[in-house]
Design a protein that fits this description.
The chain has 283 residues and is an alpha/beta fold. It contains 12 helices and 10 strands.
Length: 283
């Protein structure tokens, strides 16, 4: 895998970090809560021979700024639009995971003329159900709890235990690795604040508060691919089947045994699926 150097652009007074690699039709990858551009690096490397591939850190995540402000789906979608404007890109294929899928659908709702096709991975916005862990982040006092459980005295011993287990042959799965990597970022106050603001913009104690079904009508006039793992414990795979109600023509791919990160569980398979989806539509 080629090592890629992130770039930085200032949007609305704040720095946004992003990867930009390759030439050709543009593909924009949008990560989920506690994610970052790092989750897409393998796919950027797989895709950039034929496409211009973009993978930003959303505001509040990764190496991008974590300002006070609006972390709604519309705000994130507008930031993606501003990034494309800065780069002079008119139309893209959107690939969104979890929260990123909700942002991708909101982007299409706001700027439909700029979207060629949608790829939604374990996406938010297709049902009320979501994990207890994310719902608990909406409770009063969640910031104080996070400041303790994500502190160095807690994270340090857990990481040491994981390292010791790794020496004995234990290997964490993609879901655990991705969640742990994001969770460790919460030791910084700005990251905790951004995480809570982002979560509370789309989730309450009862589950997801925003439904894409309200805006999808009788379907979408663009190709849509939905990918989900059968062992997803964050957002249930039933939501993939629910999508057929609003997007009857969508293509649904179910990954047996995969969790919330099927694109990390088998990245080569996902890259092949993405190549095939884009090529079939372009033919």
């Amino acid at each position: 895998m080629v090592r890629m150097t992130p770039r930085t652009v200032v949007l609305h007074g704040h720095e946004l970090s992003y990867l930009d690699s390759g030439e050709g039709p543009a593909v924009l990858f949008i990560h989920g809560i506690l994610g970052s551009q790092r989750q897409w690096r393998h796919l950027v490397d797989e895709m950039d021979d034929e496409n211009r591939v973009l993978a930003p850190d959303l505001f509040g995540h990764g190496d991008s700024a974590k300002p006070m402000g609006d972390y709604s789906l519309s705000a994130h979608a507008a930031t993606m639009r501003d990034l494309l404007d800065h780069l002079g890109i008119d139309r893209v294929t959107l690939v969104g995971h979890s929260l990123g899928g909700g942002i991708a659908m909101q982007f299409y709702y706001l700027f439909p003329e700029r979207v060629e096709r949608l790829v939604l991975i374990a996406t938010g916005g297709l049902g009320r159900e979501v994990s207890v862990a994310l719902r608990s982040a909406t409770l009063p006092g969640a910031e104080q709890v996070l400041s303790v459980v994500a502190s160095a005295p807690i994270l340090g011993p857990v990481e040491m235990l994981g390292n010791a287990a790794a020496k004995l042959g234990w290997r964490p799965g993609p879901d655990l690795s991705a969640v742990w990597r994001g969770f460790t970022a919460l030791k910084e106050r700005e990251s905790r604040r951004a995480f809570l603001a982002t979560t509370r913009a789309v989730i309450d104690l009862g589950g997801q508060t925003i439904s894409a079904h309200d805006h999808l009508g009788d379907g979408l006039p663009i190709p849509v691919l939905i990918v989900w793992g059968t062992a997803d414990r964050i957002i249930p795979v039933a939501h993939a089947h629910n999508a057929k109600r609003s997007i009857p023509e969508c293509q649904v791919e179910i990954c047996e045994g995969a969790g919330h990160f099927p694109h990390l569980e088998d990245p080569d398979r996902f890259a092949a699926l993405l190549h095939e989806f884009i090529a079939a539509d372009a033919a």
